[in-house]
Amino acid sequence: MSKRLAIVGAALGAVGALGCTPAFAACTTTVGAVMSLTGSLGVLGQQIAKGAELGVADLNGAGGVNGCEMKLSLLDDQTSPSVGVDAAKKLVDVQQVPAIVGALSSGVSAAILTSVTAPSKVVQISPASTSPTFTELAEQGKTGGYWFRTTPSDALQGVAMAKVAKDAGIKRVAVMYLNNPYGQGLSKEFTAAFTRLGGTVTENVVYNPSQPSYRAEVGKASSPAPDALFLVGYPGDGTTIAREWIAAGGPQKFLLPDGLESQDFVNDVGVQYMKNVQGTAPGSDKTPSLATFQSEFQTKFGSLPTQAYIPNAYDATVLIGLAMEQSKSNQASAVRDALRKVTDPKGEKIYAGVAELKKAALLLAQGKAIQYIGATGPLQFDRNGDIAAPMQVWSVSAQGKVEPTGMVTVSQIDAMRLAT
């Protein structure tokens, strides 16, 4: 039975506090977005969506896209692949969007890619789907070149997490991972990297979403006894598992990935139990774009939470607008081909914000090359639509706050991968 789709967002033409509303021609260009606004990723997705909204506001503040107002049609996938596919079909078949920002969950993005965007030849650019599966699909020629992501693959995060665990003196780790492409990929990459570094994965236990209890899985992961638990998942089910792990007497030493970088998750589990946390998440190079993004986000929304993927959503949305501007077209194939052109390392550097996007439009109108340096750093898409980026290390402070504590650089990750 089909689930009801929630249409959560629409026009974001006015710039509000970011600037005056420009005059547009009598035209609009609509792009789609499919994100988890409810479900197990909802607590993160509601914030990530704001990044896309800010991107649209900045593009419109700079004069729109090819003189037309840009609008965002944002649909909720409820963190469900089937709902996500229905949402994407509505965007493609009914609204005829040339590009979709999303999804967030790798499982939802994979379903949309294989069922909707690749067959329909529509650009899909995810700010948060990290599974190595997408690289494999691209290498097999199954994406048609229409897949991109502004976040690095878990092939990088798995290596970074292994380094973080080793540096923390952890030798024996139990892994519990969600049964979807995200969980499967990250578990595999971490296990391989941690083993190469001399660590031991005591158990690798898969779990399915939306179970009322995970006591059986927790029991399996607890024996033989590990030094720490690497829990791969999202806040909803992750909260249940963490509570049951603690209740069963498991060590209160946690390795947590991007999907659990959430203050709400820490609060729900109980900050008194989360005093020994080592986490990773895609990070951002410090560029002028990052400072502009942070300032604008706080002006528009009040505060910028410590969690991953909000700036990634901003960059994904801005890149779509710039690609349309470069190609002077809103056709999907033109957008696909232009995405690498607006990140040309030989082009003039363009940063985030209304003033810089106005500059970009002028340069593109003159036929000049540009390199957009995003809020997440330089975005160099390889032939599979992947990027390289550093990994932020995060923890929980003595006051119970999720906060960044360091960075694993791209060069460090590359060195570890080459050493194997």
Summary of the model, kept short:
The protein is α/β, with parallel strands linked by helices. It is built from 14 helices and 16 strands. A hairpin with a 5-residue loop joins strand 15 (391-396) and strand 16 (402-408).
Structure explained in plain terms:
The chain is of the alpha/beta class. It is 41% helix and 20% strand. It is built from 14 helices and 16 strands. The strands form 3 sheets. A 7-stranded mixed sheet has the order 8-7-9-10-11-15-16, with helices on both faces. α6 (181-196) links the parallel β7 and β8. The longest helix has 20 residues, at 42-61. The radius of gyration is 21 Å and the shape is globular.
Radius of gyration: 21 Å
SSE succession: EEHEHEHEHEHEHEHEHEHEHHHEHEEEEH
Classify the helix fraction into a percent range: 40-55%
User: What's the β-strand tally?
Assistant: 16
Main β-sheet: number of strands, strand sense, barrel status?
7 strands, mixed
The termini sit apart by 48 Å
Q: Strand sequence of the main sheet, in spatial order?
A: 8-7-9-10-11-15-16
**DSSP strand content:** 15-25%
Query: What coarse outline follows from CA principal-axis ratios?
Result: globular
Give the rounded overall mean pLDDT. Answer: 93
Protein structure class: alpha/beta
Number of helices: 14
